[in-house]
Amino acid sequence: MCGADAGLNAGLVPLPRRAAGAPLAVLAVVGTRPEAIKLAPLLALLAADAAHFALRICATAQQRDLLDLALLDFTLVPDYDLDCMRPDQSLNALTARVVERMDAVLEDARPELVIVHGDTTTALAAGLAASHRRVPVAHVEAGLRSFDPAQPFPEETNRVLIDRLATLHFAPTPQARANLLAEGLPAAGVHVTGNTGIDALFRVLAGRPPPVAQERRLLVTCHRRENLGAGVAALCAALATLAAEDPGLAIDFVTHPNPQAGAAARAALAGVPRVALRAPLAYGPMLDALRGAWLVLTDSGGLQEECATLGVPVLVLRERTERPEGIAAGNAELVGTDPDRIVGAVRALAADPARRARAATPRALYGDGAAAPRIAALLRVAAGVAGTLPAAFVPAR
User: Fold this and answer.
1) Fewer Cβ neighbours under 10 Å: the N or C end of the chain?
2) Which domains does the chain have, with CATH numbers?
3) HSE-CB for 178 with a 13 A CA cutoff
4) How confident is the model at residue 191 (pLDDT cuts 50, 70, 90)?
């Protein structure tokens, strides 16, 4: 059942301090929409606790428009904006820009701790820049592993490297903690908190009316680098087949700004009956779309977490996932981008109500809405400013 376990969060690596008892100088770095959404609940708590934290926020703008949309959604105002995004940017060029521009921010802000999130180029580059200046790094959403550097690329490599740079690892699940311990990281630096993205989900849904559900609506997203080109084309072929064979099916494809993903989908599916191609949605409307969906097809990691929490079946357009909890519980199924596998999986769910009911059972696999308070409490203890160690998040099965 969902709850807390004090044993998993026993012990904590202390942070070096410039002045004992003073507020901890924290620099949080965000570059993409998911980072801003998932860190927003934690940043709100740190900003509200000025007695214990002196928070500054740095935006790298790895994703300019999508990041700005998320910052607006959560009323986050960066203290620094590195404006790093360039059209058709390469990973190496982006990494170099972030590392170089972060150095000036670190010089000015003089943080005692840098917080990064997840597996983005921003998180890796900011963590590296902090490490070069011997500033401790806290990694939120640490320990996720697909165990395949190509899936997802480059995120799997990023997250492994970030965890080597970090001092504090806030793992969302016991499995993520086990991954880190298996890699030899010290247990005192690894803490199971739940995922702050679930905190954000509950926070936003609390102010929104129930969605208007459609009995047979598919919600689709696809943006991973390994799916660009042939993967997107194969997915579109599967969607066209499903739309043609089932007049009662409606398909909403929320496209990505990356032209290799969004433009390719629009070119392949324009004019196909019952397929609607939509621009990226703000976070609240996207959650409404999820709650109203009969089934989700996606290669997104965050949507896998949200679907399990909301009880929406999800077909994962990948061969491997770093979120195995949803697969094991039956909320999610790996189908890749092969058209026959996708079409077969959709047909199987439609033909087997009991199977779909299992997939549509809401489960607290990834968080309970209290990850941000756990992390804030852990940071207070690590900084020596207040508090006791919180009990760890325990998933519901």
Assistant:
1) N
2) 3-195+367-394 (3.40.50.2000), 217-359 (3.40.50.2000)
3) 5
4) very high
